[in-house]
Amino acid sequence: MTNAIKKAVFPVAGLGTRFLPATKAMPKEMLTIVDRPVIQLAVDEARAAGIDHFIFVTGRNKGVIEDHFDKQFELEATLRERGKTVELALLDSDLPGAGQTSFTRQQQPLGLGHAVWCARELVGDEPFALLLPDMLVHSRVSCLAQMMPAYRQHGGNVLAVEEVPHEQTHRYGIVGISGSEDNAFPITEMVEKPTPGTAPSNLMISGRYILQPEIFDLLRSQERGSGNEIQLTDAMIRLMESQRFTAVRFEGKTYDCGDKIGFLSANIAFALARDDIGAQVREAIKELAGNG
Ligand code: G1P
Questions:
Q1: What pTM, to 2 d.p., does this model score?
Q2: Can you tell me which atom of ligand 1 is nearest the CA of 171?
Q3: I want to staple 168 with a disulfide (CB 3.0 to 4.6 A). Which of 35, 129, 145, 164 is the partner?
């Protein structure tokens, strides 16, 4: 019997320097994919997997994220006056319930492992999900929801993985796996940002995790690793000594929205998939590409 996963952590403290000047006064997580902020899409994915408490690890200049997940009384009153019922219903359905959000700050940019550790008091002694909002997944079924059957079956820790071209493995955490159990595999090794030519496979850790709370104690004592930062992967490697880690290959595609091309590609992919504008976007792209 595994404990249901009810809490999700979203590390959103990053500066977004690759998107300056857009991110000078606005958090990068509020950049939009068509008309939904990147962070909203990550929350949508978590909600679709049964998460009911959303924990944001923020930093300076991220207050807008907290406002985004709050009610906007003036706006709602104006929409009501104008009879904009569709927009009102949209705002309502996007909003987590009262008391379902928590915010804490990572006071110094010491790395992903440190950001996750900052959520320890809010998570408490229970397994939790971790979603890196920059890594936006386009899929029919929520990526986190696709990980739940493997968690229910095997317990322990579960990571979503996705194939990347071999020449890109040095940009990610990479896992080595053994055997095959449908789409879920035991993880045998892990390495954060392997030097080119040394990766155990081309399966990257794609930014969706189900983790046991024992990770927090390991993060507390974790020394700096790749990039001189406290790396989550390094603490997971230590946790592998006593707990199972399962890799899940999910149906869908990840777009790295921390990168300009990834972000623009995500916008195009999500726009093309939309019922309301997909056909028009396809025409617009054809026209633009034809004129290139
Ligand atoms: C982090 C993780 C890495 C993972 C990646 C996905 O790296 O440390 O294991 O593959 O996210 O984006 P970062 O992108 O923060 O350098």
A1: 0.95
A2: 16
A3: 164
Contacts of 24 (CB under 8 A, 6+ apart): none
* Ligand 1 binding pocket mutation candidate from 57, 132, 164 (most atoms within 8 A of CB): 132
Query: For residue 156, how far is the Cα from the chain centroid?
Result: 20
Note if the bond before 11 is cis, omega within 30 degrees.
no
7-258: which CATH architecture? Alpha-Beta Complex (3.90)
As for ligand 1, residues whose beta carbon falls within 6 Å of it are 112, 132, 135, 172-173, 192, 204-205, 207, 231-233
Atom 14 (ligand 1): residue with closest C-alpha? 172
60-83 pLDDT per residue, tens: 889 999 999 999 999 999 999 999
Q: Taking the domains of the chain in order of start, what are their residue ranges?
A: 7-258
Residue nearest to atom 9 of ligand 1 (CA): 173
The Å distance, Cα 172 to ligand 1 centre, comes to 5
Instruction: Report pLDDT for 3.
Output: 79
For residue 72, what are the contacts with CB-CB under 8 A and spacing of at least 6? Answer: 91
DSSP 230: B
Structure tokens at 268: 């195009």
What pLDDT digit, counting tens, does each position of 120-156 carry?
999 999 999 999 999 999 999 999 999 999 999 999 9
Residue 15 — very low, low, confident or very high, per pLDDT cuts 50/70/90? Answer: confident
Report the nearest-CA residue for atom 7 of ligand 1: 172
